[in-house]
């Protein structure tokens, strides 16, 4: 039996494919390569190029391969962009989930591991966000993921599709062997942008606002290393294989770092100056998102290995400094 990884050529999906393949699991990847990279996909995986919303193709994937469970990473995921283009986010993200659930129902596949996000909570005024914290997304992106979570809840009730929703906080870093890493076009994420400045690939970092209600005025986020995050998916797969009930889990580190603190940490890791300036706020950004991941630790027995922000940045730095232009540095197929 194989695991179908949708979006397996993307940043997080490709790390999941690598972990599954290295664990000896059969993996089928479906990706439309809108943001993914062929070079990021582990060579042992079966690669199918196509869009999740192509219902006929998806049904054929389930017919051709003996799929036991699905990991669903394929979505538009940029907070700022979603404010500008909400309909794209609802069409792609919610539309993709409708297509997926229809195909799973048709094929009698009943295990789904879903990439959700901290953005479902919106502006949380409490300290640590746990799974029961109220959900009030501040962006269409967060709203689309919350809608997807609600859809699968109802479809569990109606069709018995069991799911684990993993609400990621800020994922960062690269594989510890530096073979795969984070490469978006355009890049909007803080850690790769800072490291591109360190490498001279970009002039400076613009800090999006320093007038937030935080100690240094810049936004606080909770950074989780990508391999630690992916390990939670393997534990979630075990959890569903053991016949457990559907659940949502936060995946974060319980430690918040401001944008300025991230910049300082990156300066220490890289020993580079890294120019930065203060700019206006970015639409849709909540001031602070920090997770309690106690539930994932207790129920899934998740134990992140990276607890130090500099170690997380170090894994990213190793990949970026060996791939200063991302996957463009590697031969195309
Ligand atoms: N930031 C800057 N300058 C930049 C880029 C980012 O100041 O050039 C700031 C942002 O304003 C934010 C922080 O750095 O305060 C982190 O921004 P990212 O764009 O790296 O990440 P986001 O917090 O916006 O979003 C990420 C994922 C989402 C996910 C969210 C969960 O992209 O999919 O984490 O917390 F929902």
From TrEMBL:
Q: What's the name of the protein? A: UDP-glucose 4-epimerase
Q: Keywords in alphabetical order, please.
A: Carbohydrate metabolism, Galactose metabolism, Isomerase, NAD
- A single Pfam family it belongs to is Epimerase
A Gene Ontology BP annotation from the UniProt entry: galactose catabolic process via UDP-galactose, Leloir pathway
CDD domains reported in the protein's UniProt record: UDP_G4E_1_SDR_e
NCBIfam families xref list? galE
The similarity annotation says: Belongs to the NAD(P)-dependent epimerase/dehydratase family.
| SUPFAM superfamilies per record | NAD(P)-binding Rossmann-fold domains
Q: In which pathway does it act?
A: Carbohydrate metabolism; galactose metabolism
Q: How does it assemble?
A: Homodimer.
Reaction(s) this enzyme catalyzes, per UniProt: UDP-alpha-D-glucose = UDP-alpha-D-galactose
* Organism in which the protein naturally occurs: Suicoccus acidiformans
Q: Where is the NAD-dependent epimerase/dehydratase domain positioned along the sequence?
A: 3-252
């Amino acid at each position: 039996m194989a695991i179908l990884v949708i979006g397996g050529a993307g940043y997080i999906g490709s790390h999941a494919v690598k972990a599954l393949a290295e664990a000896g699991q059969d993996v089928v990847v479906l990706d439309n390569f809108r943001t993914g990279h062929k070079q990021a996909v582990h060579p042992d995986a079966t690669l199918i190029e196509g869009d999740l919303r192509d219902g006929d193709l998806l049904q054929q994937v389930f017919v051709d391969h003996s799929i036991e469970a699905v990991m669903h990473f394929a979505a538009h995921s940029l907070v700022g962009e979603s404010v500008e283009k909400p309909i794209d986010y609802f069409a792609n993200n919610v539309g993709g989930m409708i297509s997926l659930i229809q195909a799973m129902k048709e094929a009698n596949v009943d295990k789904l591991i879903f990439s959700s996000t901290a953005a479902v909570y919106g502006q949380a005024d409490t300290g640590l966000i746990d799974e029961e914290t109220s959900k009030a997304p501040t962006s269409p992106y967060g709203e689309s993921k919350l809608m997807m979570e609600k859809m699968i809840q109802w479809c569990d009730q109606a069709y018995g599709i069991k799911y684990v929703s993993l609400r990621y906080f800020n994922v960062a870093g690269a594989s510890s062997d530096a073979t795969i890493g984070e490469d978006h076009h355009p890049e909007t994420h803080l850690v790769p942008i800072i490291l591109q400045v360190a490498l001279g690939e970009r002039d400076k970092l613009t800090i999006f606002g320093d007038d937030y209600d935080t100690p240094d005025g810049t936004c606080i986020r909770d950074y989780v290393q990508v391999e630690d995050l992916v390990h939670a998916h393997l534990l979630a797969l075990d959890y569903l294989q053991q016949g457990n009930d559907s659940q949502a889990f936060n995946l974060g580190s319980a430690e918040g770092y401001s944008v300025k603190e991230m910049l300082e940490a990156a300066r220490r890791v890289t020993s580079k100056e890294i120019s930065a300036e203060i700019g206006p706020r970015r639409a849709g950004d909540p001031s602070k998102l920090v997770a309690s991941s106690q539930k994932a630790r207790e129920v899934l027995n998740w134990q992140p290995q990276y607890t130090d922000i500099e170690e997380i940045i170090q894994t990213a730095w190793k990949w970026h400094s060996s791939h200063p232009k991302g996957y463009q540095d590697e031969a195309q197929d």
